[in-house]
Write a structure and sequence with these properties.
The complex is a heterodimer of chains A (394) and B (146). With 394 residues, chain A is an alpha/beta fold. Chain A is 29% helix and 19% strand. Chain A has a single domain, classed as Thiolase/Chalcone synthase (Peroxisomal Thiolase, Chain A, domain 1, 3-Layer(aba) Sandwich), CATH 3.40.47. Chain B folds into 2 domains: 51 residues, no CATH class; 80 residues, OB fold (Dihydrolipoamide Acetyltransferase, E2P) (Beta Barrel), CATH 2.40.50. Classes of the chains: A alpha/beta (394), B mainly beta (146). Chains A and B meet through strand 6, helix 5 and strand 7 of A and strand 1, strand 5, strand 6 and strand 7 of B.
Chain lengths: 394, 146
């Protein structure tokens, strides 16, 4: 790949910020105020004034409009206002890629990537629609009781597990690792609420093959990252964290309506993975720590396989809790507790945790982490992923 | 309707306002299953779209779909995400494919015992579930093991 067409090292994350994370409906603040709070915290972390932010990027139709944000924050100038289309949580790393592209090409100098959610204020993700009639693609699924994200994705995961002989214990290992790491993380909504194998096994089915603990949380809060040109990274106080690559997209006809995509039982990442590693100039064996979006554990299962961390015929052996634990596991996974046990901020919390790992600031730190990867929103379209690297990786 | 698989109260299917899938719903009401087929390349296509994704022809029509269906994937739903299903208990949703119609797929319920063992790859038979007294009336396409 010509250097001029690569993001590698051209952009750095210099600030991260999060509101306190609340159970769904328990935020004392409305969604827009949560967004402002997270952005101000990220700017404080970076040591810059919010007035110097000149761009905003988000995903999944975030309701906090960038022009209103810029007005509220007194930004001197707005130069970039970007939305990654569709894909729900599949847009998290994509939004970072979009922000980075704007900075790398000189469209903007300081871009905030953010996501704010108040499901109590605006309605829950995990509920079916309340209306008398439904038209369009969903007319072909919702009247049959297939209407929530869990129900949409269980169909893919069931087929994948059937095709490859995957056991339920593989999904359980993912969940147990997230809950284990959340016990070290006082920000985590599930801090102080550990989960063991029995607790998982005895939890109720939501939709087979997902138990309760295979499903992400529903939360209120906001998260933000501040991005600037890589050449400025050394001017900031924290250890530098560079973006090595970012990719977004999906395979051939991934969006074919009514579950008709030709390659069905997939995390949707197969076509992205080669470009992800090529731009970063790393391979899966170079990744020190992984944050892999858990809308449902089955998505993590397929993501880890399709990103080359585990062969298909090794899944039942590789997907053991101990392999996924920091500091010493083979593949430390979701070290903040992730979407299952820290907070479901549509996955942007995973990107923040990946930055913390590069800085050495995680509550479940992987020693000397240099290459830190995020997989955003498996099974949707478009999906996205990114890799961060420490100074030594450039 | 007593013979319906799921409890009443879910959103009813309505033809798309732009008319894209109207022939499909009209055919179901008449106990017929149709799907889109391209007059130019003869390819089957589902869900409905305005052009053929293979040859980009807009000469698409809704043709009778007589091919055998089999279970491509399934799920047993336990947690109700809609108030109408509060007392439903578990139910089965199947994704069926038509291997002899370019592998197009459709979603429905698998009738019978919701706790039955389900086999991916098994043949299934179509059942037209009419809701004629609904306002407006509609028909669902369901499946059962032969």
């Amino acid at each position: 790949m010509p250097e001029s067409r690569s993001l590698r090292g051209s952009v750095a994350v210099v600030g991260v910020g999060e509101t306190p994370y609340y159970k769904r409906g328990e935020s004392p603040d409305p969604e827009f105020k949560l967004a402002l709070d997270a952005i101000i915290r990220a700017c404080e972390d970076a040591g810059i004034s919010p007035k110097d932010v000149d761009g905003f990027a988000s995903f999944s139709n975030d309701r906090s409009d960038p022009s209103r944000l810029a007005a509220a924050l007194g930004c001197n100038e707005l130069r970039f206002a970007n939305m990654q289309w569709g894909g729900g949580g599949g847009g998290g790393s994509g939004a970072i890629g979009n922000a980075a592209a704007a900075i790398a090409t000189g469209m903007a100098d300081c871009v905030v990537v953010f996501r704010a959610l108040a499901q109590g204020q605006f309605g829950r993700f995990g509920q079916g629609p309340r209306r008398n009639a439904i038209a369009g693609e969903f007319a072909h699924t919702i009247p049959y009781g297939l209407m929530s994200p869990g129900q949409m994705f269980a169909m893919k995961v069931q087929r994948f597990m059937h095709d490859h002989g995957v056991e339920q214990s593989a999904l359980r290992a993912i969940s147990l690792a997230s809950y284990h790491h959340a016990q070290n993380n006082p920000r985590a909504v599930m801090h102080g609420r550990p989960l063991d194998e029995t607790g998982y096994d005895e939890s109720r089915w939501i939709v087979e093959p997902f138990h309760l603990y295979d499903c992400c949380l529903e939360n209120d809060g906001a998260a933000a990252l501040v991005l600037v040109a890589g050449e400025r990274a050394a001017d900031f106080d924290h250890p530098s964290c560079y973006l090595l690559s970012a990719v977004a997209g999906s395979h051939y006809r991934a969006g074919a309506p009514v579950h008709n995509t030709p390659d069905y039982a997939t995390s949707t990442f197969k076509t992205l993975v080669p470009r992800l590693y090529e731009m970063a100039e790393v391979d899966s064996s170079d990744v020190d720590v992984l944050q892999s979006y858990e809308n449902f554990t089955g998505g993590v299962l397929m993501s880890i396989v399709e990103h080359g961390f585990c062969a298909l015929d090794e899944v039942n052996d590789f997907f053991k809790k101990d392999n996924f634990l920091a500091p010493g596991g083979a593949l430390p996974l979701n070290t903040s507790g992730g979407n299952l046990a820290e907070c479901y901020m549509h996955g942007l919390g995973l990107n923040i945790e990946a930055v913390r790992q590069i800085r050495g600031q995680s509550t479940s730190q992987v020693p000397d982490a240099k290459v830190s990867m995020v997989i955003s929103g498996p099974m949707v379209t478009p999906v996205s992923a990114c890799i961060f690297g420490a100074e030594e990786t450039l | 309707m007593s013979s319906a698989y799921l409890a009443p109260g879910l959103p009813a299917p309505a033809p798309s306002p732009d008319g894209l899938d109207t022939p499909y719903w009209e055919a179901l009401a008449a106990d017929q299953l149709v799907a889109q087929r391209c007059a130019n390349c003869q390819g089957w296509q589902w869900g409905p779209e305005w052009i053929c994704h293979r040859c980009l022809s807009s000469e698409l029509s809704f043709e009778p779909l007589d091919a055998q269906a089999r279970i491509y994937s399934y799920e047993r739903v336990w947690h109700p995400v809609h108030p109408a299903l509060k007392d439903q208990g578990p139910y089965l949703v199947v994704l069926v494919e038509f291997p002899d119609a370019d592998g197009i797929r459709m979603v429905g319920n698998l009738l019978g015992d919701p706790q039955q063992e389900v086999s991916i790859g098994a043949d299934v038979v179509r059942v037209f579930e009419h809701h004629r007294e609904a306002d407006p009336p509609f028909t669902l396409l369901q499946w059962r093991c032969p």
